[in-house]
Design brief:
Elements lengths: L4 H6 L7 E4 L3 E5 L7 E7 L15 H16 L2 H4 L2 E3 L15 E5 L9
Antiparallel strand pairs: 1-2, 2-3, 3-5, 4-5
Bound molecules: guanosine-5'-monophosphate and zinc ion.
């Protein structure tokens, strides 16, 4: 079966600008940034959406958000502020079907989101 784009990025078959990596999580720069800082945080295990993760694998959420927490402190977003977005499905505009948290910072964001 064909691997998804982000699985290829995890395996370094497609290059990316990595900001943080451990055994379970990769955080890298979005190729088309929507803000001065735009990172994507992904679990290395492939799931298309958070509701598809079985309860016995929910440790990936702990690993993902722990890595995000560490990264935002390292690069100073904890002081600047940041927005996180997870899209799923066509109505939300998901284009890559591998769980990813957008981390956006460096400008003001509107609420509610568009
Ligand atoms: P989605 O629209 O699924 O929520 O977000 C997918 C994101 O992946 C988009 O913001 C898009 O710019 C980013 N993206 C798509 N292809 C690549 C790529 O090859 N490399 C990187 N670094 N980001 C990508
Ligand atoms: Zn994948």
């Amino acid at each position: 079966m064909d691997q998804c784009l982000f699985c290829k990025i995890i395996k370094k078959e497609i290059p990316s600008e990595v900001v943080y990596e451990n055994d379970s999580v990769l955080i890298f720069k979005d190729i088309t940034p929507k803000a001065p800082t735009h990172l994507l945080a992904i679990p290395k295990k492939h799931y298309a959406g958070i509701h598809l993760v079985p309860p016995d694998d929910s440790i990936i959420f702990q690993q993902l958000f722990a890595a995000i927490g560490e990264t935002v402190k390292i690069i100073g977003l904890d002081l600047a502020g940041y927005r996180q977005v997870i899209n799923f499905g066509d109505c939300a505009g998901q284009t890559v079907h591998h769980i990813h948290v957008h981390i956006l910072s460096g400008r003001d964001f509107t609420w509610p989101p568009g």
